[in-house]
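Here is an idea for our session: we take a single protein and study its fold together. To get us started, please write out a protein record for me. Start from the sequence, derive the backbone structure tokens from it, and show both lines together. Go ahead whenever you are ready, and we will take it from there:
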Amino acid sequence: MTLRASLQKLKQNISQLKEGLLRASSSRRITQAEADRRQNLIDDLQTREKQLNTTFKGEVTGAETNRSSLMTGGTGGAAANPWLINETEETRGLMFGEIKQQQQRIVEAQDAGLDALASVISRQKIMGQEIGNELDEQNEIIDDLAHLVDKTDDRIRNETRRVKLIETKSASCGMLVVIMLLLVAIIVVAVWPV
């Protein structure tokens, strides 16, 4: 009866582990690789739980015993510890609480790194906005300068036209003066008694 109660408790614990893994995986508290590793361990526990139930009920056949020994790597001896499968050097020999603390420190370090990255990105954003504002001001100055250059160019063209007009007027005025002087000279010579 104690064995039956223990097997029932084992089954409940395995289902709790499965639910806890599902919650941890869906809330992304653990990586996908870690979730896969834990799922493999839970699957191994379920298989062993079924083997224990079968053994308890006395229904073990020779084929099942051979299959069991093939899966555990032995010939009916002690199976390899499933918790050591894919275990990293950092976690080997640590208790569950210590592993949890280690993971918490890793998460805190990642959070600190993300906070530092966020502050750098924030500073870069501010710098980008300031550069954009400076470029807007420079563009306004360039537009004003271009407008002034256009106005100055128009003035220079107008003054150049006036200078050419005055030049042509002065040239024709000089001719008129010469014509008038010649006319006066002709009249003087005609009127002068010889």
The helical segments are 2-26, 32-57, 62-72, 96-191. The chain has four helices and no strands. Residues 96-191 form the longest helix (96 residues).
